[in-house]
Fold this sequence. Notes:
Elements: E1 2-7, E2 10-24, E3 29-37, H1 54-85
Antiparallel strand pairs: 1-2, 2-3
Amino acid sequence: MTAYPKYAELTDVVFQVAWVLSATDGTYNSAAYGSVDVTYVPGTVYTPYDQLTLEQVNGWVAGALGEDGIAKAQADCDSVIAAQKDPNLPVTPPLPWN
C-alpha cells in the first residue's frame, strides 16, 4: 500500500493498493496483478494504518475492481493455466517435399 505521510490532518493515509490474485490447479500456477486508487474523504471514518485489516483492504480492492474486474482477473489466470496445460507453441515441421 502507498500512503501519504500526512493528509487532512491524519497520518499514513492510503491512496493506492497493489493487489495480486493467484490461481493454481495443483500443478500449474498463474497470477494477475494491478493496483487501484483509493480516496479518503475528509470527515468520513478513518482507520489508522496500523489498524487496517486484510479484509478491509481487500474490500477496497474488490470495490474498485467491481465484479467484472474480479471476473476478468480470474479468467486471465484460468487462461494462463489452460495455456500451460496445452501450450500452442510454434513448431517447424520438416518440409513436405523432402
